[in-house]
Amino acid sequence: MKLLKIMAAGCLSLLLVRGQAAAAPAVAEQPPALETYQPRYISFYQAQQSQLDAFLVRFFQRELPRFDYPLILSEGSLPDFLARARQYQSEQAGLLAAGQTPEDLRFGERVVTWSQTRQVLDSAYVFAPRWAFSPLEISGPEYSGQTEGQGWYLVLKSRFSLDLPLYKVREDQPQALTAFQENWQIVKLLRMDMPLLRQRMQDELGASPAPEDTAAFLTTLRRLPPFDQLLPALESQDPARYLQDTARKVLELELSSPEKMAKLSDQALVLGLSGSLNLLHPDGLKQSGAFLEGVSALYKLQNLLAEIRKTPEFQLKGQVSAFDPQSDLSQLSLSESESVSSLGIHLDAGYRIIEYRQTPEGMQPVEIGFTKVRALEEQQFSVQTILAARPFEPGDQHLEYPKTPFELRLRGGTGSLALLGPRSGIYADTAPEFSGTLYYSLAQALGWSETYLGLNGAYGMVGWPGVRGRAPPANVSALTGELGLSKRFYFRQLMLAVGLRLGFMNGVQSDGPSTLSQSTLGGTPFAGAALQLNPDLILGLDLGWREYPAAGTRWRSSAGDSDLCYGLAASGPVFGLFLNYQL
């Protein structure tokens, strides 16, 4: 629904921006005074002690250095805290006027110093984070075949959520501006000594189910001391006692998007080569669902950060100080007390340009262009024009347009697939193919402008006519998973791109009651051309050459390997129409 709203409102010059500055008092026809960013002071009000709050503060200090973030630990709600603090401030007015420090305040069991209290009272805004864990779910056992940690594990699962309301501090009471909610699933594995447990089950309970029969094994384990008391206790107690460290590690991983992207790519490669990453495999839906959940969790905190930047009070504002029509670059100015580093401005960040126009309702802000940051200096930065209704002029207003570093691309077109064998010959065809790509911009992480790490998944199916001898089946479906780099070049709305992806192709076919699969490695160099429709959407075409040599003629199934005298391969063009959306 959010995407549809953005698409509907995306046409250039039709997007209206909420005006923040007051109208000039003299004449209604005069445009309002242009705005510049005003530094803000933000506190974190901690109503319950949690190490996750300190982690959250560090995250904001790194990603949004434009603020200070004191962390205040107290009890009760933020409105109650402010009401009590205001009352105490009024009672101690004489002492404060004399330059003396009042005594500390007590809130329940918590003692808050007057200096800490003043940090909240003097803040322009206050975050009041609340963390919650869902009841613990115990499942398993599950086997891990990794070299490190190989063995059987009991699985503890919970979802922990963050409710982060944002308040504007007023004299009477805090005003709730907005609230951000995110949630993550966390999994903790407990190593099990399977031979010892099964021996104890047999000796003490007279039954020792195989660990592959997870339901029977877990039921029996719940009867075995001390698990008969330990597992119910785990399920009835607050999961935060056991999972806070795991939750912190999950959040730390969220902050390292390149590492998370690489981990997901490695996971896709392993699943593809094992024949599991397809919808016809018995565990395909489960494992593919887990993979997609990992992709979804990849950008959660970045999305939270973008939502905070979108708050009108937090948006960076300023003026166009110079425009060079030959290079299509504009200089955007900052206030004297701020710098590029103190505000956390980075390459490829988007900025809208607006002007004020006379309407029947008075002077209204109208978007006249969209730009991207291309060069950074200490007191100013340069932006490249992407969309423009007219040439920019000194004095035009610029507004930050916050987005995450992630983009989602959906593509439909044709792909190539072949079956090769020494005796069966060559069978090749092209057929419809659909793909999705998750892009991560390396501009902020590495300083590489318009360079993207992409995780691509494509699905296609082709059919062959019947031939004499051992022929391929009527159809073979193929899932291709690739990781690659791409570079974009902008010429106003026109965007050109080149790149290379490397990965795997996993083919699946049915042979009677069995499902056969085979994987091979290869890559796809590609190039594309597109138009930037609005700040969020790109529409374009791409063309590439997919090259995947056959890895052999043996195909795997649950019944064992089979030699089919041909192998999965690809050597041909891929072509498609795509729609790109920045998340």
Summarize the structure.
The protein is built from 14 helices and 25 strands. With 583 residues, the chain is an alpha+beta fold.
Question: What does this entry look like structurally?
Answer:
- With 583 residues, this protein is an alpha+beta fold.
- Among the domains are: 2-20 and 30-36 and 315-401, Thrombin, subunit H; 42-135 and 161-178, no CATH class; 406-582, Porin (Beta Barrel), CATH 2.40.160.
- It is 25% helix and 43% strand.
- It has helices at 2-8, 51-63, 78-91, 93-97, 114-121, 194-205, 214-221, 227-236, 240-255, 257-273, 284-297, 300-310, 340-343, 443-446, and strands spanning 42-46, 71-73, 105-107, 110-112, 125-127, 130-133, 137-144, 151-168, 175-192, 317-324, 329-333, 350-359, 362-376, 380-388, 397-401, 406-421, 425-441, 451-463, 475-491, 494-511, 514-532, 537-548, 554-555, 562-563, 567-582.
- Strands 16-17-18-19-20-21-22-25 form an eight-stranded antiparallel beta barrel.
- The protein is flat, with a radius of gyration of 30 Å.
- The protein starts with a helix and ends with a strand.
What is the CATH class of one domain? Mainly Beta
Strand content: 35-45%
Strand neighbour order, sheet with most strands: 16-17-18-19-20-21-22-25
- Number of helical elements: 14
Mean pLDDT: 79
3D shape: flat
Helix content: 10-25%
Low-confidence runs of at least 5 consecutive residues: 1-29, 275-282, 466-470
Structural class from helices and strands? alpha+beta
Distance between the termini: 13 Å
The value of Rg in angstroms is 30 Å
CATH-defined fold name of one domain = Porin
- Could you describe the largest sheet, including whether it forms a barrel? 8 strands, antiparallel, barrel
Quick one: how many beta strands? 25
CATH architecture of one domain: Beta Barrel
